[in-house]
Amino acid sequence: MSDDAELFATTYRDPDEGDVIELPDGATTAVERVGDVEIGLPTLAVEVVGTGERAQYVILRNDADGDVCIPDGSNVLGVDGWTDSVYFAVPTEVYE
After folding, report:
1. Which residue of 31, 51, 93, 95 is most buried, as measured by CB atoms within 10 A?
2. pLDDT for 13-32, tens place per residue?
């Protein structure tokens, strides 16, 4: 009998830089815009799914143009094509 891992799945909507989120080890993430384009810029959504131990991270972003440097231990969440921004999550202990 195998040990089943608990699945963690959530969507963080319209996160701001500096927001604290939870990510499991080895999380798969996607960044996309959801909502109606005709009523304005759709809402940013960061989708996360994975298993394993969870830790807290701080969301940061940087322009996708040119070189993007992120601290060791960070997770790239994805690129927002509307704003050409790279979103990434930095472990809280590195951010502080």
Report:
1. 31
2. 999 999 999 999 889 999 99
